[in-house]
């Protein structure tokens, strides 16, 4: 065998194999590689979109938490204001009730003082009549001298 003929035959077979591979094997391989690269690129883009959406969702959650916290603080301050208003109202009501009770007690004390004065006047008038009886050594008729006793009561 001739080395040159073998080498030429191998070149021919190599070029036929290379042509066959380029025509029938290479296009599906490049197509599969391109599809794989596209899927990877789409996956990376989806991951980036997911990260961006996650960051946006995190911002929305933080904003909602802040607004909920603000609403909670507002409700707490409103409740504190309302409680303070109720306390003030109760204090005012208690003050008014205390003033009313004090006025009623004063009125009752004045009435009792007046009744005591009237009772004392009656007792003084009775004592005055008895004293006059003792002095005159005769009985003084209270019915006859009613005008005189009334005048005496008013002077006391």
UniProtKB/TrEMBL annotation:
Location within or outside the cell: Cell membrane; Endomembrane system
InterPro entries in the record: ATP_synth_B-like_membr_sf, ATP_synth_b/b'su_bac/chlpt, ATP_synth_F0_bsu_bac, ATP_synthase_B_chain
UniProt entry keywords in alphabetical sequence: ATP synthesis, Cell membrane, CF(0), Hydrogen ion transport, Ion transport, Membrane, Transmembrane, Transmembrane helix, Transport
Record's protein name: ATP synthase subunit b
UniProt cross-references to NCBIfam families, sorted A to Z: ATP_synt_b, PRK05759.1-2
Topology of this chain in the membrane: Single-pass membrane protein
Transmembrane segments: 6-26
Subunit and interaction comment: F-type ATPases have 2 components, F(1) - the catalytic core - and F(0) - the membrane proton channel. F(1) has five subunits: alpha(3), beta(3), gamma(1), delta(1), epsilon(1). F(0) has three main subunits: a(1), b(2) and c(10-14). The alpha and beta chains form an alternating ring which encloses part of the gamma chain. F(1) is attached to F(0) by a central stalk formed by the gamma and epsilon chains, while a peripheral stalk is formed by the delta and b chains.
Superkingdom in the source lineage: Bacteria
